[in-house]
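Narrative of accomplishments. A recurring question from our advisory board has been how the design workflow behaves on a single, concrete structure rather than in aggregate. To address it, we present the structure tokens for one chain from the evaluation set, followed by the sequence designed for it. No filtering or post-editing was applied between the two.
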């Protein structure tokens, strides 16, 4: 039995986490649901660089590995129903067994105990949209099985959630901030995007040891599915603004906050590249796909990456890019498609036609596990 001497630091750790979540902003619960994104093409990028000087982890190929997946979805209680594709009736499972193999090196297999040991007394926070939450759930599932039930918990508060491994005094956290800058409700419930305001989101990023950001999808929605109704910068209000211009302005606000508020000796900052979507044919391009693509006929670099690179070059703070886009663009087979909710009856053709096909998020176990193996290698 633990003595009071050992219990005190653990109690202090949990209390400090609770206090850090007291000041939370109010977020609409509907915005925490998976997105129904409508983009129309496979998005790819060319690698800018890798934080591992000796090897570019973004260039490689997918190979079958029968020792995968790294965990069983039935044994991880932290998964959203939307991504538990096997539970939701997906008939194939080979999508769980593909391993990413870089051309010039290899990615270490994820070892939960090693990861926890290296991250002892640290906070890791993933910041972004529902696809970043997809990655957070993956990372928690990779780690949680080696932590006794009584020694782990999850704290939910406002736009944040945190998995705590009490014996290691460490946390894996998620912060909902799909645009990084602030999106507020105005008169008549209109959504106003403030390009020069960020503190309501950024206050949760203080004191974190590893910050992983992602912000692209909500900036690329078409007019019909726009993420905002109006845009404000200072006292100026815009109804129509070029999304790429808005994205650069929003990233500049983020970059300024990072430069002014964080210490590179304390906090590692990583920006994860855009997760690809296979949404051609109204979201049905990924349906019934059982193998990765073998090659690309029309690779291109999205504007968001060009903007991100330009902004990062102006920063004083060292920010690392985690390139997951090209490797993931091969994986048209890895999305939930129609298997986003449990069904008690066998699907017929008409039922399939009536259901939406999610080609944006990822089944778990699956592709985001590889993202986290790459993240682990970077750390």
């Amino acid at each position: 039995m633990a003595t009071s001497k050992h219990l005190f630091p653990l109690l202090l750790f949990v209390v400090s986490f609770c206090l850090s979540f007291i000041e939370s902003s109010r977020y609409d619960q509907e915005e925490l649901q998976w997105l129904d994104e409508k983009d129309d093409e496979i998005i790819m990028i060319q690698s800018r660089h890798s934080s591992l000087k000796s090897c570019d982890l973004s260039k490689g190929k997918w190979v079958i590995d029968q020792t995968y997946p790294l965990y069983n979805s039935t044994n991880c209680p932290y998964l959203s129903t939307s991504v538990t594709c096997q539970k939701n009736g997906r008939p194939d499972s080979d999508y769980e067994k593909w391993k990413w193999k870089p051309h010039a090196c290899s990615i270490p297999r994820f070892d939960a105990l090693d990861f926890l040991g290296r991250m002892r007394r640290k906070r890791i926070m993933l910041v972004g949209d529902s696809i970043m939450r997809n990655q957070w759930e993956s990372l928690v599932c990779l780690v949680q099985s080696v932590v006794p039930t009584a020694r782990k918990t999850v704290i939910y508060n406002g736009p944040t959630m945190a998995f705590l491994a009490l014996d290691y005094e460490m946390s894996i956290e998620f912060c909902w901030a799909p645009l990084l800058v602030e999106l507020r409700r105005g008169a008549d419930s209109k959504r106003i995007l403030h390009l020069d305001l960020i503190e309501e989101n950024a206050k949760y990023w203080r004191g974190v040891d590893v910050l992983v950001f992602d912000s692209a999808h909500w900036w690329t929605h078409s007019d019909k599915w726009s993420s905002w109704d109006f845009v404000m910068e200072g006292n100026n209000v815009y109804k129509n603004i070029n999304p790429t211009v808005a994205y650069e302005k929003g990233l500049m606000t983020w970059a300024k906050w990072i430069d002014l508020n964080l210490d590179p000796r304390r906090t590692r900052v990583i920006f994860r590249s855009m997760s690809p979507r296979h949404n051609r044919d109204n979201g049905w391009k990924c349906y019934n796909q059982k193998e990765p693509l073998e090659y690309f006929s029309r690779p291109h670099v999205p504007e968001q990456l060009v903007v991100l690179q330009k902004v990062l070059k102006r920063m004083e703070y060292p920010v690392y890019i985690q390139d997951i886009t090209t490797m993931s663009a091969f994986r048209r087979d890895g999305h939930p498609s129609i298997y986003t909710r449990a069904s008690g009856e066998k699907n017929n053709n008409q039922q399939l036609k009536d259901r939406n096909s999610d080609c944006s998020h990822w089944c778990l176990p699956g592709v985001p596990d590889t993202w986290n193996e790459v993240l682990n290698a970077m750390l």
